[in-house]
Amino acid sequence: KKTILSGIQPSGKLHIGNYFGAIRQHIAMQEEGEAFYFIANYHSLTSLNDGEKLRENTIDVTLDYLALGLDPKKATFFAQSDVPQVTELAWILGTLTPVSLMEKGVSYKDKIAAGLSPNIGLFTYPILQAADILIYHSDIVPVGEDQKQNIEITRDLAGKFNYAYEGEYLKIPEEHIVKSVAVVPGIDGRKMSKSYDNTINIFAEGKQLKKRVMSIETDSTPLDDPKDPENDNVFALIKLFADKEKQDEIAEKYRAGGYGYGHAKKELLGMIEDYFGEAREKRREMAKDLDYVHDVLREGGKKARERAEEVMEPIREVAGIVNHR
Ligand code: TYM
Questions:
Q1: What distance in angstroms lies between residue 40's CA and the mean position of ligand 1's atoms?
Q2: Where does the UniProt annotation place the signal sequence (predicted)?
Q3: How many domains does the chain have?
């Protein structure tokens, strides 16, 4: 069985870019292999310094996943910080990482450009991510396009370790990116991202959701004129929710004219409400019993730690890190 692994930062509310780009694949793949999914709370510290908020977000993300269909009997779900072997391996990998490799980090540059403080944690972020992946001997890492370079760096660092210590200590992983949803656009047409404030959140509802959908940016083609669906932010999002038949039907209305962006937005709003309706109900129910959520994280952490220790032990051994306890 292949080992599937992925992580998500608890740095705010999850959005439909996270869902279609990653979470949906995570949930589908729990049926296919041995799945490990975790909350990257150490990574979030690079942009969030509020303990109470981070703790709250950690529970929120767990509830989100459970409501969206994660089955803790099939997939191991846990918090990154419950596996100390990860930070241990990250340090060791860091000693083999050229500074120049980190300087090429696109995600680092993007985050600085978006206004985050250029701290060392942000700079070495990909090393911790490599450790996340390598510590479980992961085969496949389902992610969105923006994580591609981080997985490449992971392969690079695994190779450097294996070369330095002359053995197959770390397994070389592959990313799994679904082309049609590799970059889900936000309400302004750029990649949907919390740092651009252009998200539609998975569990937004009522007025809040409506306001967000209504503020999707469109061009100023008059209502009666024909419109090009392939060149519109509303249609780009409709495509995520509608089957082929429904997409064609709406595209036809665009091209015919007399169908305005306001109509398209209403249609999209209904689709979002239907699509996540069941998950929303489930989440509301689950939020009443947080003991279960804590149990899931505790059990998941235990399983992940055991697996991580199996990989870590020979690494300590070959690197000459002796345990004197
Ligand atoms: P994060 O928390 O930013 O995003 C979680 C997942 O959602 C995907 N994603 C998108 N996909 C398509 N279109 C979008 N607009 C979009 N926005 C987000 C991301 O690609 C990601 O798969 N560095 C990671 C967290 C991480 C991780 C790991 C992932 C830490 N360690 C190990 C995999 C393996 C991150 O910041 O994801």
A1: 10
A2: none
A3: 2
Same-domain check for residues 141 and 262: no
CA dihedral of 129, 130, 136, 138, whole degrees rounded to 10: 110
| Planar angle of CA 48, 53, 56, nearest 5 degrees | 130
**Series of mean pLDDT values for 10-residue runs along the chain (325 residues):** 97 97 98 97 96 98 98 98 98 98 93 90 97 98 98 98 98 98 97 94 96 97 95 97 97 96 97 98 96 98 98 97 87
CATH number at residue 154: 3.40.50.620
ipTM of the complex: 0.99
Of these residues, 1, 171, 191, 253, which one is catalytic?
191
- Between CA 12 and CA 48 the distance in angstroms is 9
**Residue count (the chain):** 325
Q: Is 244 a catalytic residue?
A: no
- Give the residue whose CA is nearest to atom 27 of ligand 1: 7
DSSP track, 254-280? HHHSS--HHHHHHHHHHHHHHHHHHHH
Q: Whose CA is nearest to atom 9 of ligand 1?
A: 18
| Boundaries of domain holding 238 | 203-284
Domain co-membership, 174 together with 276: no
Model pTM above 0.95 = yes
